[in-house]
Amino acid sequence: MTPTASPRHLVHLGDLEQSELEDWIELSLSIKRSGAAPALPGRSLGMLFFRGSLRTRTSFEAAVNQLGGHAINMSAASDFWDLEAREGVVMDGRAPEHIRDAAAVLSSYVDALAIRPAPAGHSWELDRRDEGIHAWAMHARVPVINMESALWHPLQALADTMTMRESLGALAGRKLAIVWSHAPEPSSPAVVHSLLVAAARFGMNVSVAHPTGYELDGEVIRRAKNAAETSGGTVEFTSEREAAAKGAHVVYARSWRSIEHYGNTTLAASQRSRTAGWSVDEALMKLGEDARFMHAMPIRRNLEVTDEVLDGPRSLTLTQAENRLHSQKAVLTRLLGR
Amino acid sequence: MTPTASPRHLVHLGDLEQSELEDWIELSLSIKRSGAAPALPGRSLGMLFFRGSLRTRTSFEAAVNQLGGHAINMSAASDFWDLEAREGVVMDGRAPEHIRDAAAVLSSYVDALAIRPAPAGHSWELDRRDEGIHAWAMHARVPVINMESALWHPLQALADTMTMRESLGALAGRKLAIVWSHAPEPSSPAVVHSLLVAAARFGMNVSVAHPTGYELDGEVIRRAKNAAETSGGTVEFTSEREAAAKGAHVVYARSWRSIEHYGNTTLAASQRSRTAGWSVDEALMKLGEDARFMHAMPIRRNLEVTDEVLDGPRSLTLTQAENRLHSQKAVLTRLLGR
Amino acid sequence: MTPTASPRHLVHLGDLEQSELEDWIELSLSIKRSGAAPALPGRSLGMLFFRGSLRTRTSFEAAVNQLGGHAINMSAASDFWDLEAREGVVMDGRAPEHIRDAAAVLSSYVDALAIRPAPAGHSWELDRRDEGIHAWAMHARVPVINMESALWHPLQALADTMTMRESLGALAGRKLAIVWSHAPEPSSPAVVHSLLVAAARFGMNVSVAHPTGYELDGEVIRRAKNAAETSGGTVEFTSEREAAAKGAHVVYARSWRSIEHYGNTTLAASQRSRTAGWSVDEALMKLGEDARFMHAMPIRRNLEVTDEVLDGPRSLTLTQAENRLHSQKAVLTRLLGR
To answer: B33-45 burial, b if ≥16 CB within 10 A, otherwise e?
Structure first.
C-alpha cells in the first residue's frame, strides 16, 4: 500500500547485476535448506494470468502464503478482459481498458504484481518486444514480476540455475546441452532464452542443438555471447543433438516453436513433421559426462523424452519444479520483504 | 457461522439512512487517513461473479485480507453454473439450482456474500427488477452486498461520494455534471443511477447530459428528485454536454446503453453511431469551475476522454479506484465487523 | 512440505476401517457442536476442479481457512490444461502433461491435494475404473482426497451419514429409501454409490427404487451387500417408489444417469422421457415413518421434489449441506492435522 517511488521489477535477468543474481541463488539454496523467514506479513501479491499455468500459479501462491502474505489470483479466461498495451491509441477496438490504468489501479490494492502475458502469436517481430510486460512495469507503482512473456521466463531460469548449482556445485566450465525436442504444440523460446543467458553469465559452456529453422532470437544470442565473454563461458549452436550432448553435464530438453514460421500454423506444422527424431533417450544421455536430465515441464512423455530417462536417477525435473517454490520465495523476499 | 436472524444487506444506497451514509463516508475517509482496525479476524466473504471484474474483485479481496479476514472467490465462467431466481417454477430448464438453495447453503459456510449478477440484457423491464440480487438478499442468512446489478452499483457510488468529499469538502451546492460518453460496448446505467441518487442526497446540483434516447430509468430519476427536494439539491437533464459542464465542479463521464433500445443490438448500434462527438476533452473541462474529471473505469482512452484530460492534474480517476479499497473496508467493518 | 513416505488417501470410504469411519463421524458431530481445533496452521490444500462445483469448493475452502490453513484453488476451465492418466503412452495427443508429473510437482508445493476429476462420459466400463483419481493417489506424495469421481463421492457420504446420525441417532435397523428422480441432466451415480455402501456398513435397511435401466454399478452393489451382511443391514432394489418409501425413516432423492445407455445421449434422453413421474411429493413422504427428506444438491425444484417437501419441516437438505463443512474439517484434521 506504500508504493515505492521507483519500484524494482523483474522482467528479465538483465534487471539483476551478477552479484545480485548470485545472491538470489544463494538465498534460494539457503531457503531450501533452512526454511524462509516470514518476510511478507500483511503483504499481498496480485497474480494476473493471461494464459494458463499449473506450476507457476501453484508455487507462487504457496510461496506467498508460506511467507505469511496473501496472493490474489486472476485469470483472464474467466475473471476479466483484454487490456490495451499501445500508447496514445483511440481505444475503439476489443480491449475496454488500458494496461496503464489497470496497472495504476492495482498498484493501490496490492504490494506487487506478477504477470503472465499472452503473446498474440502472429508476428515474432511484434511479440518479441514484450510490450505487455513492459507496459505493466512502466505504469505500475509496485514491483512487477514476469511470469513468462514471449521473450523471457526469468523465474524458470532462476530455479534452473539454482538446480544446477545444487547438483553440480560451481557452474563455470560445466557443459550445458540445450536440446530442442519434438512436440505437437511447442512452447515459446522464453524458457531457453532466459536459461541461455543465465548459463552464459555463470561461465558455462552452452551448446544448443536444434533442427534448422528453429534458431533462437538473434538479440538474445548476442546477449548470451556477450555474457559468456565476460564470464569465460562459451555459447555455440549445432544441428546435431549428439554433438551437443557429448561431454555435457546437463542435457536440458525443450520444445520451442520456430521463429522463422512464427504465426504460420501450416508451415510450422509441416516443418515440425520433419523433426520426429528429436527426443531424449538413454543413448543420448550416455554421450554426456554423468549427465543430468532437465526439463521445465509440462513434459510430453515418450515424445520429448523417454519414461526411462525421465523417471531415472539422473532426472532433475522434479527438483527443478520444487525449486520454483524456494527460488520464488527468494525473489519475493528480495523484492517485497520487510 | 452465526447468521443474524435478519441480516443487514447492501443492495442499493436506499438501504442506508442518510446519517448512516454519512457515517460510512466518514469512516472511509478515516480508514484512508489512519488505516483500518482489523475488524474481520476469522471472518470470510464469499464473492460470486456472474460477470467479469478487475477493480471490484481485487479491491474487495484485498480489503477483506487487509482487515484480517478471508475471501472465497467464485466465477460463474469457470467454477459453477446458472442459478434460477424465479419462485415456484418447475426447474426443467438450463439452471440446475435455485438461488434460494445456493444462498441458504453458502450462508452456512461464509459470513457475508458479495454478488455480481449478470443481467440477461434482453428486456429492461425485466432486468430493472434486479431479481437475482433480491433473491440472494431474501434467502441468504448473512449480509448480501451488491457488486453491481442492472439497476445499482452502491459500492462505486460510495467510493465516488467519498472521492468528491475528499476533493471538494462539503458537497451541498456543488455542481456535478454527468456526461454520457461514446463507447462500442456501453455499460449498464447502474453506476450513474447510484451516483445520481447519492449526489442528490448530499444536496449537489446534478446535471445529466446525454443524447436523446439514453434517458435513465424513470423510477431512479424520481428517487433522485425526491432526494434532492429533501436535501436542497437539484437534478436536471439536458442533451447539451456544454450546458451540463458549465460551472461544474466535477465532470463525470460514463457510457451507458440505451434503455429505449435495450436488448436490440442492431438498433442500439445504429443509434450509437450518431453519438461519436460525445467525448470529454480539455475544451469541455474548461467550461467547469476548476472542474475535476471522474470516471468509474474501465475507460476507453481517446474515445470517452482524451489522454490529456485523463492523465492531467484534474483527473480523479485513480483516486476513485483507490477509494474503492478504503470505502469497501468501511462497508465490511460496518456490516461484519467485530 | 514434508510429505509422508506413504500418504493416507481418501478415494472412497473403503479406505477407512469401520472404526475409523465411526471416529470420523463422531469427530464431525463434535466439531459441529463445539467447534474445531485449529489443526492446519501453515498447512495448505491444493484443490483441482476438472468440473464445476459450488458446495464442495466453498465448503472445502472455508473449512481449510477456519482451521487456520490455506487453500489454493484451480479450475481446469480457466487455469490449466488436460492431463494424461494412462501409463507408458506416447503423449502426442491433447494432454501436454501427465498426472504422474503434475501430482509429483504439486506434492512439493502443498500438503494435500483434493481432486474433482471429469469423467469422459463415453463408456461406463472405462469411467468406472476412476483412472484419474487413482493416478493422483498413486503419484502424489501427499494425501489425495476425492471430491467426486465417476464411481465415488466419499465426502458427500460422510456428510450424509453424519446428518442421519444427528437426526436419527443410531442407524442400525433404520430404513433408508434411495429414490431415483427425474432431471434433464442427471448426475453420475457416485453420490448414491458412496451412500449405499456407507448406509450398509452402519446396518441400515436400504431400499433403492429406480426405473428399469437405471441399475447401479454391479461391483458397488456387491460391496454394499457384503457390508450389510457384516453389519446386519439389508440392501434391496425395486422399481416401485412407494415400496421403497414405505416405512422409511429417510427418503433420499437423486437423479443419476443410466449406466445402460451411458454415453449414448439420444437413447438416454429417450429413456428419461418415460420417467417423468419420478419425483418426491408429500404423498410419497407420508408412506414413510415420520420420514426425513434428503438430497445432495443441486436440486431441480418441482421436478425432482416439490417445494412443499423441500421447504417443509422434514427436509434435511440444508443440514446436509452445512454438514459438508463440519465433516470436511474432520477429514482434514485426521489426514493433515498437527
So the answer is: eeebeebbeebbb
